[in-house]
Amino acid sequence: LEKGIGVSNAKIILIGEHAAVYGKPAIVVPLTAVKLTAVTTAIEQGQLIESTYYTGPLERSIKSFAGIRKLIQTILARLNQRQANFKMTITSEIPAERGMGSSAATAIAVIRSLYSFFGQKINRAMLLELANVAEKITHGDPSGMDAATTSATAPIWFVKGQASYNLPINLDGNLVIADSGIRGQTGPAVATVRERMADFPQETAVFMDQLAELATSTRNAIASQQLAQVGQNFTSAQLILQTLGVSNQTIDHLVFVAQRNGSLGTKLTGGGRGGCIIALTADQANTDRLLAALRAEGVTQTWIQPLAHLNQL
Ligand code: MEV
Questions:
Q1: What is the pTM (predicted TM-score) of this model?
Q2: Which residues are in the GHMP kinase N-terminal domain (predicted)?
């Protein structure tokens, strides 16, 4: 086969980041309009990578590409294709290190691209297991949530180690996503929470239980179309995440500004310590007001996702 194309998309965690690492539920939505594509083509000699993170021979790739390199080598070994010659081109609309799942999305697209290139089928369980090979190297102790969502096309209720299932969202209003312009630091943030769990196990477990309750409450509020309750849960989750040490001053400030400018609820999303915030708005007027306020604070990029258009099964 001459060409193998693999596609994945950005993801946004509505609620449940960090708690997901400890087996608590999370609600995660794919942003199917924000895509990542890997294209593998046959070449005469070598194994070449072409991407914004790294361009050059696979075996000489840089440290930040180590997870994807290990993943590609694992796939080649499994498919008995260690000596195959190919070039893989990765193009992404997902900003890196913003909590939007770019690393998992890269893994998913790379797997799909290589399996397609070699004319092999892959089931969902194997897709997620392989993505974890890269995510373990990139993020240390991943829950698998990013891989599950960047490969999905509808919102999911995620619990680590369990089969996730679709969670239809039929709400009016908008999910507004704003990039703080600061790199998120999922690895260090997950490590901070792990240390906290070791030092203050009981207190930290209570925070995890509270985040789990907020996820359940949010699921119920989605089912009963209570947008304002979903927003309040966002703000409650942000306070807990802040206490856990995974927010930072810039995020706290953007949350503060959003809350005064039309947001029904605002929180960080993803690993934290930077990355994006998410906010909920009821209508276009509040969305416009919020976007203007956030842009005045210097956010680098914004996305508006109508909640009614999340279910693209
Ligand atoms: C990162 O997007 C989400 C975290 O919960 C880590 C994980 O679930 O692997 C912080």
A1: 0.89
A2: 72-149
- The pLDDT tens digits for 42-51 are 999 999 999 9
Residue owning the nearest CA to atom 2 of ligand 1: 270
**Are residues 150 and 222 located together in one domain of the fold?**
no
Asked if the structure places residue 163 within a domain, the reply is no
User: CATH code at 232?
Assistant: 3.30.70.890
Domain that holds residue 266: 169-309
Task: Identify the residues whose C-beta falls under 6 Å from ligand 1.
Answer: 13, 17-18, 20-21, 99, 139, 142-143, 145-146, 186, 190, 270-271
Say if the ipTM goes beyond 0.90.
yes
Q: Are residues 96 and 209 in the same domain?
A: no
Q: Are residues 89 and 176 in the same domain?
A: no
HEC sequence for the chain? CCEEEEEEEEEEEEECCCHHHHCCCEEEEEEEEEEEEEEEEECCCCEEEECCCCEEEHHHCCHHHHHHHHHHHHHHHHCCCCCCCEEEEEEECCCCCCCCCHHHHHHHHHHHHHHHHCCCCCCHHHHHHHHHHHHHHHHCCCCCHHHHHHCCCCCEEECCCCCCEECCCCCCCEEEEEECCCCCCHHHHHHHHHHHHHHCHHHHHHHHHHHHHHHHHHHHHHHCCCHHHHHHHHHHHHHHHHHHCCCCHHHHHHHHHHHCCCCCCEEEECCCCCCEEEEEECCHHHHHHHHHHHHHCCCCEEEEEEHHHCCCC
